[in-house]
Amino acid sequence: MLFSTDDTIVALSSAGGVSGRGLIRMSGSNAWELTDDLFVPAADQDRGWKETGGRRRLWGRLRLADNESCPTQMYVFQQPKSYTGQDMIELHLPGSPALLQMVLTGLLRAGARMAQPGEFTARAFFNGRMDLSAAEAVAEVVSARSDTQLKGAQRLLDGTLRRRCEQITAQIVEVLALVEAEIDFNDQEIELTSAQTLRKLISTCRNQLEPVLTESVSWEQLSYLPQVVLAGPTNAGKSSLANALLGIDRSIVNTMAGTTRDALTAPLNLDQSECLLIDTAGLGRTDDLLAEEAQDLARKTMAQGDLLLWVVDVADNRSKAEIDRDISQRIELGLPNNYILVANKIDLCRDMDRRLCELSELTDSLWVAVSALRGDRLVQLKERIEQNLHSGHAETTGATLALTVRQKQELTAGADNLSQAERLLADAGGFQGELAALELRTALDHLAAISGAVVTEEILGRIFSRFCVGK
Are 52 and 89 in a shared domain? Predict the structure, then answer.
């Protein structure tokens, strides 16, 4: 993929379909001139906006074909303090697909070129507005499907990875200078720095680099949302609880047993993370063939879940033995031990203190008493869910780096080069400074590829081809 930075590019930068507002973005040396022929400012003092320059927002109308026009907000960005480092224009228009296409066609006829995928961000990289790791983060921000992914992308976007690589690079450069000095004076039998000292310095560099790998997660890991399965006897209020936790009517609720026949899935936002909440069919005796199949699906879903919410009805009209039977059913089914007992329908308890005391006697497991109907203690249930999902695991909600496949490959290769340089200097066969220096230079190249200081056309094409047009 070859990018030209001399011409003016344009693209629709908002999502497709009808919306309240559409966005057309243009960047390049003629962006202002092309827009000046079409845009009519509402205020007379804004008619000389090109001469004023700077960064501004203007109100006015955009000329269309057949002497028509449409209301427009125009954002003006002057180089080099724009996203791309070039003169930029953003036109905010009514989000009619036909209207946006009409404006886009007019700008293309006026001399702009349709931007390639990722070309705006590519120009930002080429013009020094961001390093390559930040450019990759832009793509991850656009494609993020969860808060966890968005936070992981933000860590890349703010330059955390680049700064850590720069610190390690500076240390490797110092070691390389010492190794090359030893090479220069090796034939004179003058030892400026011992091989043992050089190995220790390289080891220090490697020890700085390896935690970047071991303490990071892959982008694919962030794409996985843990599955939390709602299960339990029929009419325990699972579907009502699912709707209450999600804040939407995702599941059908009815007093008739067996309403839920499928495994209904929806993302659930917790305080610091997300999960997939899955509502399953209630378990119990049935003569209905379809209900039996629904219960078989429920059991398979429970077995695959990361956490089970075993829901029981603690309404006051049920005996202690019936509650005990409902709790014991989970064990009889051989379901996972990782579960939270949810005592639902506390709003129907006439003597809630007694009922909860009985519940404590029946189980020593983690349990939460809630009311799906009134919303009682749902916050506490969400807290328990999050604690359970993340207990004993490294937090991946943005506190650690999320690496792309390319970044992980470059860092791994760099660490391998450092290890090889260390081994070469430990070889009993004699000083192998030239080979060690080559390994150190190669390690520097791999780290430089993170920020884009050293990069090939193939790498650039692979990165920016993942973008959508307009970004």
Answer: yes
